[in-house]
Amino acid sequence: MGSLGVLLALLLASVSLVRLGMVEFGARAERPLAQDELYFMVCAARGLAIGEIPVSGCHDNKAPLIFLAQQFVQLVQPGYNYSAVKTLAYGMVVVLMLMAAGLSRRLGGGWAAAAAAAFVLQIFGFDSRLAGLKTELLGSVFMLAGTWCVLRWLQLPTLARASAAGLMYGLAIVSKQTFVFALLGPLVVLLWLMLTRQLAVRQTTAHVLGFIAAALVPTTAFILIFDHQGRLPDFLGAMFLYSSAYAPAEAKPVIAALMDKGRHLLSFLVEAPWVVLLSGLGVWKVFWPTPEVTTPPAHVAKAASRVRLQAALVTFSALGMLLLLLVAPVQFYYHLLPAWMLMAVLAAWGVADVFSRSGVAVRFVVLVMLILGSAQQTWQTWAVEVPRPPRDWNLPLVPKLANAKGQFAYVVGVWPAFYVVNGLIPASNVLYPNALPGAPASWNYTPPGPDTWYGARLLALQSDNARQLIEDFKRTPPRFILVIEADARAKTSIRSTDIEVLAAYLSARCHPQTQVSGTGREAGMLHVCN
Question: pTM, whole model, 2 decimals?
Fold first, then answer.
């Protein structure tokens, strides 16, 4: 009964994902999977237009590998092609499913692998936006690859396996800096091995150094590339400085902020309740293993201990990615994707253990939970609404420009859809107002005090960005500039923008043409420049 139930859950979850794919490549073919894809698409297009491959970033708090992935798509399929982006994204979903299945198979065997595949598809099935070609998706692929390499290293410690693991984690970090929190798993496991003296000091030291050196390779490679391009400050600012300014304008006391984040985290977790609940079985087995009825042979006990250590690696990596959400200044549900992938592995291991050790009643309950999770997603995608949340992101409000495709333009604010809908290319790498002096506070940005070290450093970088903006405008002059009022100036300001360098350019080179009416976030003025 157990094997058939797992296969049924996998089949139902697969049907759910197929249904979402039919919608995304059919009725929603002219819509992106996720809003962040628009940011990455236009930044990649800017890099291709000026011959910058890879692109150092567009002065946002993003690591560079996601832009390189989008540039790859645009090299294969020129222009802003949603279907091409979705094809690569769905390919990564399949890779994640197979990797989670492979990890679970090492822990719990074949049926654990099938259960893990079902859990992964359940997660992506609840909201197709999770499958967007974004930092969380790309980084999760490398994170699971790094986890796989560490599991192999635990089975047979070699310097090559330690280095391979470090390289994979390093690639995850240059996909999104926050994947450094996934290193909690390897660190805890390594500490345990050292405390229990299961590894020689010399061997441990060599492998740790190999891991660290390999983990630094991707970042070092990008440093060398961007230093050669003269874009190193852009890269370092995106990796470290701008991410530190990403915070709400109205900060709450620490305790109140943690309570709010905890509530948000719980609200995110319940979106995939069966994965979360069943992953508890795996966590329980890590800390409180089921006692054996009889004393097993030494080799069996040793194998069980190794599997438990491998599961501890997955557990603490998942815990690290969950802790990230409690310290991050802003939370979104898709930030949970990496933790969900690891929780799917733990849940599958827990299910396999129940099937092998528990009585009929317990097996039945767990099996019902597994099938119910897949059935729930299938029902939602086929019979209720696809996709569940509305996802237009005010695309219909974008002002349409005739014969503008391929021209350069600039948005003073955050509305990348303006570029994508009209086929425009950003006129500068400095895409985001937070990267320029005079940018007002917004929902996710608080200007730091200039008397602090961080504030002084950010102001110096913003001044450099202002010079770069004008150089970019000379090289690729914008035909259109769209000023978004909420992002360009403070509420009490009467100027077109508080960003002085842009205000001067608008006054000297452009004239207002059309008032853009939006929902508040997009209201502004479209300028035409000569």
Answer: 0.90
